[in-house]
Amino acid sequence: MQLVVVKRRSVLGRPSRRGVINRSLPGSPCRRSPTRTLRRVALGGLLLGELALGWTGAATEAAPQKAAPQAALARTGAGAAVLRVLSDRLLPPSLVNAQNVRWATDRTVFMPLLRQGTAEVAIDQEPAVVVKEWVPGEASPGGFFFATRVAASPQYLVVTAPMYGLTWKARTPAAQRREASFDLIASVDVRGDQLLVLGDRRDDKGIAAADGAIAFLGSLAKDAADLRPVLFDATGPLAKKFQDGYFLDIGAVRFLGDGRFLIVPGVQPGVHLFDGSGKLQRSWDSASLGLDTSVGLSEREVDRIRLSVEPRDAWLSRRRVVDDILPLVQGPALIVRTGKPDGPQWELKVLGPDGWVRTAAIPVKALSDRARLRGDVRGGKIVLIMTAYKEGGMQPERPRLIVAETPP
């Protein structure tokens, strides 16, 4: 089969309409055609296999590592703050496909497991063990085809694929799973029944990001039928910057405890804080925070980054980008990844209400040059998952699960 270079305005091939994307669910208006299936195999295989860290191959055994508990922040000899790590261990081979993490209870977390669904995992025992399957995987009747990101509130659990759609269900025993279609999904969060998505959608004519919208706010209680844009691509209609930089995976969104939310588009300058209604309150300049964006990519670079993991790795190895956002009591905290010759390093950059910025190093060693770090916070504890895949293929490394204390 000939591999065709996909240009920026047709990233996903044939347009799909909004609505439920799994025809096994009640009321689905959408059917998957052979053409769409082939395009999913061609382009989706590249994105999901490489960007989502793969799903094949056996994991290498290694002894779990635990760090001795310390205080919330330590300080190096030079006086720099360092986040205190309580534990740092490899997940068992059964969880090799874990991609993200959100607290479920004080002792368990939600983890999306690619084609294996989304599970609740007990992390207060060794090894960590699945205690409940919340969203079945692709092979199960009514399952969701690919899970890479997760978000949770006391009322809802939300799971997304990198493209085509997201799914959610109420956290009650008899709840039914629902779905909504998106074109590309870069990040997701939920607070109560409020849904926040960084991504793009097709309009009723099948045009992706026709109005240039790249972030949406809506209600799961209304089946996400009221999703409305809260942030637009700087280039306007068709969202060229978002489509060009999407494959680098450098955007994030997160609700704060008071209902406000932060958006880091990554594909264009700016870190933006909104109130609960979606009104912009303030913005930070990316450069002033020491962050890089994908602005300035040439058309040739965009095509290479879309089609191969090596150009993505090379770009990230020379940049400072946001891997995730944590909703700390002090304010939103960016998990900043800095590419280094001996592997990436991370720091927590807290954005204070009066404009101050405080930084603390996250003292973890990267699994590989391709490692990424995602996390969540609950009750004074931060949980982080480090994912990566091995050089030269799609075989994943066993993820590391790290628990740290929140900074004072």
Task: Please characterize this protein's 3D structure.
The chain has helices at 34-51, 240-245, 299-307, 309-316, and strands at 73-75, 81-83, 85-90, 102-103, 108-112, 118-122, 129-135, 149-152, 156-160, 163-170, 178-191, 194-200, 213-219, 228-232, 252-255, 261-264, 271-274, 280-284, 320-328, 331-338, 345-351, 357-362, 372-378, 381-387, 400-405. Residues 1-71 and 74-78 have low confidence and may be disordered. It is globular and about 50 Å long. α3 crosses α4. It is mainly β and 408 residues long. The longest helix is centred in the first third of the chain and has 18 residues, at 34-51.
The end-to-end span amounts to 56 Å
Q: Describe the global form.
A: globular
Overall strand count = 25
Q: Give the amount of beta strand, in percent.
A: 35-45%
CA radius of gyration:
20 Å
Ranges where pLDDT stays below 50 over 5 or more residues in a row are: 1-71, 74-78
The multimeric state of the shown protein is single chain
Q: Helix proportion of residues, in percent?
A: 10-25%
In spatial order, strands of the major sheet run 8-9-10-11-12-13-14
* Largest β sheet strand count, sense and barrel closure: 7 strands, antiparallel
User: What string, H for helix and E for strand, traces the elements in order?
Assistant: HEEEEEEEEEEEEEEHEEEEHHEEEEEEE
